[in-house]
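Q: Two folds, back to back.
A: First:
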Amino acid sequence: SESNGKANTDKIMARSDNNYFDAFKWCRAKGSSWYLPAKDELKRIYNYKDMLNSTLSQYGGTALTNYWYWSSTESVEDKPEFRAWSVGMIIGYASSSIKYPYYYVRAVSAF
């Protein structure tokens, strides 16, 4: 899904091979309500980045950096098992990229 990271995370965590999905496991280890956001959710986070960083700073949280963050949305182009969407927190641009470990991950929880 491009808009439902919780459903994406639930789907991955239900797989018998979920031990290969470190980003999803890290998010879910925070609790059952935590998940890896979908592409559109990350774009919304970008839209509120300054406000979120201010609040995170106030409560001792880790601010969003001006770097790329993985989403839970796989890319449908050319072998989706090897590609996923990421969102750059510099300008909010989404890009389909080959899955490699050099981007950041941000866990979110619905409230």
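A: Second:
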Amino acid sequence: MKTFKYFVGNEWHTPISGKYLDSENPATGDVWARVPDCGPEDIDLAVKSARSALSNPIWKSMTATERGKLIFKLADLIEQNAEKMGSIETQDSGKLLAETVS
């Protein structure tokens, strides 16, 4: 069984509370993963990180075109990892792989 972390501030984190939720595969009823049960402290960390990123001089000085290029790069990464992400979503939601990858 896979235990996931959450990603904030360019780092992987375990939930501050140490709590996790079991994710069941609806097709089998089996627990296939444990996911962070993020609480207020985890949310505060994410908000502080986002605010810090927005106030970063590098981000502030970028043009809309430069920011757009980064967003397209992110889209490319999502496309490159679509099968892996779809497989995870299929286990989590019980949908067909064709539905979660398209």
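Q: And?
A: The chain is about 55% helix and 20% strand.
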